[in-house]
Amino acid sequence: MKGFILSFRSEFYKSRKTAGFWSAVILPLLLCLLIFAGFYSRSDKMVMEPPGMILWAQFSGAILGVMGSLLLPMLIVFIGYSVNSIEHKADTWKTLFSLPISKFAVYTAKYFYALFLVFLCLALFVLFTIGFGNLLGTVKPGLKFHDYNMSGTLSQLYFKLFLSSLGILSIQFLLSLLFRDFLKPMGIGFVATITGVILVVNQWKYDYLFPYSHPMLALSALPQRHNHPAGNNPISVDIFTQEIYVSMIIAAVVFIAGYFIVLKKSVK
Amino acid sequence: MVINTDGLTFDFGSQTVVKSLSLQVPEGSIYGFLGPNGAGKTTTIKLLLNLLQTQQGSIHIFGKELKSNRLEILAQIGSLIEQPAIYLHLSGKENLLNRALLLQIGEARVNEVLKIVHLTDAAHKKAGQYSLGMKQRLGIALALLSDPKLLILDEPTNGLDPNGIIEVRELLIKLVSEHKKTVFISSHLLAEIERMATHVGIINHGELLFQGSIHDLEAMSKPAVQIETDNTVDAANYLARNNYTITEVNDTHIFVPYTTKQQMGNINKLLNDMGYNVYSITKQHKDLEKLFLDITQNA
Q: Which CATH number characterizes residue B70's domain?
């Protein structure tokens, strides 16, 4: 456990000045800022003033829409790559594996750091969405953002998105660990993401088995819940749907398989 | 023995890179591990650090089997393999601090090793802007950080200027003589390590061709008589006609295997009588560089 914590802290120390780390922070900020600007400039043209809940749904939906289908998988591809490329580039695998720290701790710390970056990114999305929504409500009192509190639903939604991304993360993490160059994991990730989108759009029967479809599936299942009132909250999020289970199972299997590959792999 | 391998063999695919290697590195030695490029030195070092899995044979370090005591052994080894592994986007000091974090070592030690390798002034410069020699010195600093009992250095003087080579040499000698460390250092240049090594192992095509103390190696080299005359070629021919074996002739010197002092006197007289000017005639040990070449080429 000590080895894991030390390695995890070292991962942060190493990456805090890299694009991999900052992309997880800047992407949510930028995206939320853009949608904020869009809403701000459009607000005068909004003829009828929608109630707070609809407004929140529009605002967060705009962000989620961009994020869920394409950006999240690509961000994961990038994070998986950047966490590993830092060692490929510096040729430091050999030193990592000759430290008096178990290979399992080194591998796990790296994996969980990638996981942490994705989690951080999605958590910031929640934070920025709520922050910018409330800011909109303040600077444009016509938009009744203050009427409704979205934070609970939004947190659940992004948590579900996080769980749905675990499968992709494990696969991309392993690919980036094995391949030194950016093109292979990037290319595979990109093609798989597009395939995932096509599968969902065409409503293929078994799309829930394909990890790259999971983020989109996780979000597309939502409208059905609309007519399903739970208490006084009309948008209830059913977190554990079948694609989430599949995502978690794939993540666990690939994670364990990856460890045995690392164990057997000779460090060149 | 600090390092003791027995019948160590390693194949990359169908190619055997290390053949039944039996290394014996005594405590407190500077063991020069010599061989031409591609002889199997780096592979051996990676085996010693458990970066490559042992296929055949055994490795014992500090008297313990490597694989079953991996972490305990690695905790006492500092290593530098091939080009130093450095995060180029971090400064030299940050590189050391990162390693110190992993090894749970304080910042004071980081400053200490920076001073040892003369990088204190460049500590806050990005490692990406370091010269080759500075990177190498940072690599050595990383190896020294944990104050390990055994240092395994793969060609540590690569890219260093003569001053840097001398500094590293003096540092290693000091570590061994004052701090009772053991150093295992590989090189493809004998000249580079003959002045510090106490023990030598010579490897080529994965096979250990020689192993012993540096004195054993010197003893293997047969002395020669080196003669400097005004006309080396004619003088050499004349000596050959007088039943002397000539091992080498060049523009300035003739070399004849040394037998006795009397023989040197005879050669001198012979050449003088024939009117050759003998500028100098000395007994010389064959230099180790040549011996090294002989050993690695005759194999």
A: 3.40.50.300
Asked if A7 and A101 touch (Cβ cutoff 8 Å), the reply is yes
- How is A2-24 classified by DSSP, letter by letter? HHHHHHHHHHHHHHTTSHHHHHH
Domain span at A218: 2-264
Please say which residue of B201, B219, B237 terminates a domain. Answer: B219
What confidence tens digit (pLDDT) does each residue in B102-142 have?
A: 999 999 999 999 998 889 999 999 999 998 888 988 999 99
Q: Nearest CA to CA, how far is B175 from chain A (Å)? A: 21
> Three-state SS across A234-254?
CCCCCCCCHHHHHHHHHHHHH
Enumerate helices (H) and strands (E) in chain A, giving the number of each: 11, 0
Amino acid code (one letter) for A234? P
State the amino acid at position A139 in one-letter form.
Answer: V
B184-208: pLDDT as tens digits: 999 888 777 888 899 999 998 888 8
CB atoms within 10 A of CB A74: 16
C-beta of residue B52 within 8 angstroms of C-beta of residue B16: no
Residue carrying the six token digits 């303040």: A138
B254-289 confidence digits (pLDDT tens): 888 888 889 889 888 988 998 888 899 988 776 667
Burial label for A45, CB within 10 Å (0-12, 13-18, 19+), is exposed
As a dihedral over the C-alpha atoms of residue A139, residue A140, residue A143, residue A148, rounded to 10 degrees, the angle is 20
With CB atoms and an 8 Å threshold, state whether B87 touches A95: no
3-state secondary structure of A190: helix
Of B46, B90, B101, the CB nearest to A267: B46
Of B219, B236, B269, which closes a domain?
Answer: B219
- pLDDT band at A225; cut points 50, 70, 90: very low
Question: Residue B236's domain spans which residues?
Answer: 223-298
Most A CBs within 10 Å: which of B80, B87, B97, B154, as the mutation test of the A interface? Answer: B87
When divided into structural domains, chain B yields a total of 2
Residues in chain B with CB shorter than 8 Å from the CB of A92 are 85-87
Contact between residue A35 and residue A28 where contact means Cβ atoms under 8 Å apart = no
Query: Within this chain, do residues B149 and B271 fall inside the same structural domain, yes or no?
Result: no
Q: List chain B residues with CB under 8 Å of A109.
A: none
| DSSP helix/strand/coil, B173 | helix
Separation CA B132–CA B165 (nearest Å): 13
Give which of B81, B55, B72, B87 is closest to B152, Cα–Cα: B81
